[in-house]
Amino acid sequence: MEREKSFWIRISFIISVILLIVKFYSYYITNSAAILTDALESIVNVVAAGFASYSIYLSSRPRDDNHPYGHGKIEFFSAGVEGVLIMLAGLFIIYQAVYNLFFPSGLEKLLEGMILVAFSGAVNGILGVLLQKKGKKLNSITLEASGKHLLTDTFTSFLLILGVLVIYLTGLNFLDSVIAILFSLYILYSGYGLVRKSVGGLMDEADPVAVESTVSAINKNRKNVWIDIHNMRVQQYGGDRHVDLHLTLPYYLDLEQVHNEVEELEKVLEDDWPGIMEVFVHADPCIPEKCCHYCQIADCPVRKFPVDTKIEWNALNMSKNQKHYHDLSD
């Protein structure tokens, strides 16, 4: 898996370098600030791909004494760096566009420049789709972030072509700076999105997708003897996922039976995740006065009260640190 991640990020780096040359040549022959936005974003692509390559190498290293949860969080850092670089490029482009409004320069060979930008955009689009698919398959936020960035680059490239085409047909050269500023604002927004996701991951913000996936896997294999699950925490670092939860079991089970139920729940979660899954289960004994009302064991030998409800497990109530009877009105 890590070898495949490294392969795709190296491909991304090589292509980014080639397209960087193509786009700067396009700017060189046109002198267009709008096309400069595409060229500068290519610098970000190259730097980000290089950093992503290192982050994937580091995240693949096994856990050690200093990093008991592994090195997967470096991928959040990589996505954050990419977002910051995108935002810096956007700010520089705005500066350059405003400067050109007051000190305009002549535009040349716009048709040739548009063809080169279109070629670069098409290549980025194909690579972006592949990186996002591989990122989801390999559970790599770095590949997904790179793919999203390249798709954003493709989208802006083709909108940029339309803008340059208007300039080419009308001869209104001041539109070059206006288009550059508009595209820079979009670039800033895209960069902010990556930074926001990166900070959320580094701060262990709850990942709704990871939580819902865990809840779904448990519900598909739910057993009546698993009376309740609560205080569940799900963290994901790169391709590694960590789950902590409390499992309520009948108090009369012996230690071996409790151990077997815990192992079965762990296996359910491990089999559902293609990457590395680490599960910590804390077993709680049931309290008849509180649990009998929703315990689904049909032939429970110690039942004191009849069953009058069934708690539907979801991301909200399974995450609460409230034992046995959460979700009940009494």
UniProtKB/TrEMBL annotation:
Origin organism of this chain? Cecembia rubra
Name it. Cation diffusion facilitator family transporter
Q: Where on the tree of life does the source sit, at the highest rank?
A: Bacteria
Q: How does it sit in the membrane?
A: Multi-pass membrane protein
Q: A GO biological process this protein is involved in?
A: intracellular zinc ion homeostasis
Q: What family is this protein classified in?
A: Belongs to the cation diffusion facilitator (CDF) transporter (TC 2.A.4) family.
Q: Which residues form a coiled coil?
A: none
What InterPro entries does the annotation carry?
Answer: Cation_efflux, Cation_efflux_CTD, Cation_efflux_CTD_sf, Cation_efflux_TM, Cation_efflux_TMD_sf, CDF_Transporter
TM regions (residue ranges): 7-27, 39-58, 79-98, 110-130, 150-171, 177-195
Q: Name one GO molecular function term.
A: ferrous iron transmembrane transporter activity
Where is the protein localized? Membrane
Keywords assigned: Membrane, Transmembrane, Transmembrane helix, Transport
- Looking at the record, the residues that make up the Cation efflux protein transmembrane domain are 10-203
Q: Which residues form the Cation efflux protein cytoplasmic domain?
A: 227-286
Could you confirm whether the keyword Transmembrane helix appears in this record? yes
The protein's matches in PANTHER family, at most eight in alphabetical order, are given as: MITOCHONDRIAL METAL TRANSPORTER 1-RELATED
| Keyword Transport listed | yes
Gene Ontology cellular-component terms for this entry are:
plasma membrane
Q: Which Pfam families match?
A: Cation_efflux, ZT_dimer
